[in-house]
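Researcher: Hi, I'm a grad student and pretty new to this. My advisor asked me to get structures for two proteins we've been looking at. I'm not sure of the right format, so I'll just paste the first sequence and hope you can take it from there.
Model: That works fine. Here's the first sequence with its structure tokens right after it:
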Amino acid sequence: MANSPKHTFGREFRAALLAVLLLSSPVLPRAQQTTTSTILSAEERDLSASVKVETIKDVTAALSSSEMQGRGTMQAGGDRAAEYIAQRFAKLGLKPLGKSSYMQPITFRETQFLPETSFKMGEESFTLGNDYVVTPPYSGDKSVSGQLVFVAYGLISNVPKRDDLAGIDVKGKIVVMLEGPPKSVDKLSWSKAKAQMTIIQSLVYRGAAGLVFVNTGTADRPYSEMADYLTRRRLELSESEEMPSFLPPFITFSNEAAEKLFAGSGVTFAQALELADREGFKPFSLKKSAKITVRLKKAKGVGNNVIGLLEGSDPTMKAEALVYTAHYDAYGVDKGNRVYHGAADNALGVAEMIAAAEALTQSPARIRRSIIFLAVTGEEYGGFGSSYWIDNPTWKIKQVAANLNFDGMGTEVYGPVKTLVGYGAEHSSLGALLKEVAAATSLTVIADPRPEEKSFYRSDHYFFVKRGVPGLMILGAPEGEISAWIKRMKEWEKTDYHQPTDIVRPDWNWDGPRTMAALGVVLGFRIANNDQMPSWVPDSPYNRERGTNKPPPPQQ
């Protein structure tokens, strides 16, 4: 699963900065009624029982092994993993649905920091990672220098009445500042007004040589965690628009290093933070200059989506397809040769998808619609594999019935799965279908217990949803107190999430992943055989014609 909100570290407004600086009728459903049932049919019981836990174990172990080197996109381990998945698809008799056999090649642009990247203040040098990080967006190599000035939040406002730039010209200066809002401003109002982005825009247009953010770490998102992510290599689709060259470098400092920025200014870092929220704050010089050098190593390379097809049996309905997705990429191998094994996130999800494919391909049951199994790459860097497939589909998007996505945090291995969370369930008929199948299999569907994490927006299903295709990602967890497994999940996030320590553990309960794969099989079987494709809830903001970004026209 891609980074959670606590791992974006203020990048939303920086990613949106580029946009600020640079200036058919719905498909009618079939007349037949969809068949629903809270009891499994004999075919569904057989399908569910045929899901093999051995397959899930074998695939998870193979993909998270050291041989796969973390399955990095645009790395040898990622290529090796793609070949392995393609071979599994071939053994199951799935037809190739890529551009070249099972593979859909995607060209990526990679960016890494070179050792020449530096931040110097007089004779003092700071260390990339430990002391500071360069934050997106990157506008290429930079060498800037200037006097350091502190402007608190950089806010100019009537309500509250502030002028954080009073009496100071920031042109050619390196601006040291805080991310808002000030204590006197409501966080929701600040966010709705996009105030942070407006402030950044203003400072850029005023000619600031560089922006340095301080006091950004919290207990929930410590600086060390931020630095770990932002010093890793960065990937984008090769056709992604380059950042404009006039953007200054954006830097984030640790609190410890920020102390040194203020040393000798007559104001300590702690005092500066206090002054920033006082009425009548005035900007001041830190009485020293700094030089920022950013040197980037850029390269292009290819990663692959892996796509297999189980053709439907109905002469008409086989032109429509259900798409299963699971991302097979992890963070690969870093410059220190650390391997990010990605066992729970998301070798396990790929294994569940392959186990579902195995059950469906070997079943004598009649499956009317076609089914696509799509193992995507580049998810950890922004859902690039799914995004690319949606924009360059190997199946007509208007004929994609739905998406079922296997991705998670490994909560299904905590014990036998009895509890489900359906991300996206409230937006389409897939929600009702999930409840029906859950009731038929003695499972309980609950609301998202951590809505602040915004998991619905953070994985591959969301790219389908944005383009009018109903999508669903399901999290599985054991029965009992929700707080107990949430506590375990949070502990895992702190120690293993997106880390080399995300490996298969001896205490994993494999009955849970088998339940998840079996659930996916039954859901897929019903979607593939129902007369109607899944439909949107009328008031869902994603209620639109498949393959479009626009809402449907009003009903007459």
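Researcher: Oh nice, that was easy. Here's the second one.
Model: And its structure:
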Amino acid sequence: MIPIYVSSIGYELGERVSLAALPQSADETQLTDLRGSGMEHYRESTDSVGTLSMRSVETTLAAWTGDVQTIDCIIFCSMSLPELDDESLANLCTTANLPKIPVVGISLNGCAHLAPALRFARGLIASEGLRNILVITADKCMTPERRVADMNFAVLSDGAASCIVSSSLESAEFRVDGIGQASNNRLRGIDYSQSQRRTMGMISVGVRESARLALAEACMPEGSASCAIMSNVRNDACQMFAKQCKLSPMSVYSESLSDVGHCFSSDPLINLAKSGDWRRAKATDNDEKRFLVFGLGPFAWGALLFMPV
């Protein structure tokens, strides 16, 4: 498997809002459960998905030392692609000085779009010789009543994140050593309230399978990563997923949860950018420097094995 490299992570978040502003805040039991699971705030924005993406991309390109004219493709990941109108996409590409390169959309993986995006990018680099690919993840919660996910799994936030995926080590911050994807399409559109315990069990199996596949690409056994960066979902669920993946619950990064909320598929890149000191401390405690980054959704899951370079 050819190596690919990730660099220049940028992100844009909505305004920080207390859980007390949720429409569901009148339900004190639910609010207590959310707070007890590590959630305190979420991010809300009046900007469109296109505008949030454009600001994130501006941060990424400002940090990148490469030539923008060597970007050969944009991969745009969102559950909100139907709301991304042609004008917004044209503005984004023009602002990035990339008005004529292909744009590919990824939208059917819930909150786990980053793994298929990097998998697709790796395929383009390997089979077609592309040099650099701009990857964008962006989403908004479209109605206030949908802010709290089923089973109090997360509180949804508005935001975007982006990075450069390259064939070259130059300017790289991370090497991607493994990519794992898992899905259970029986979980699409089901009523989660009918069997929460069984549903969480099925999700745990999918998370473990995505981790196993990512590690297998690097010929590493389960449980051998130094730490795990999860999506910003409830802490007890992340600890359960860590145990399923044969990792210590203490090895799970959760510092962004209370501040950022669950920013859909942008969580992995946001947490990757925010967790530098925490990751370095974990690598010091463990000779293995490679770590897992998870994208967690209700029916699709992705795991990425990263190595700092």
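Researcher: Is there anything I should tell my advisor about the second?
Model: You could mention this: The domain at 174-308 is CATH 3.40.47.10 (Peroxisomal Thiolase; Chain A, domain 1).
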